[in-house]
Amino acid sequence: MIQSVQELPLTLTNNSAAITFANDDIRSRSANCQCGGWLQHQEGSPLYQILDGGYYEVSLNSNISSATAGSVALGLYQDGILVPGTTAITEITTAGIPENISFSKVIKVCGRANATLTIASVPSIPNLSTNVGIDTETPIIQSANLIIKRLS
Question: pTM above 0.85?
Answer without folding.
Answer: yes
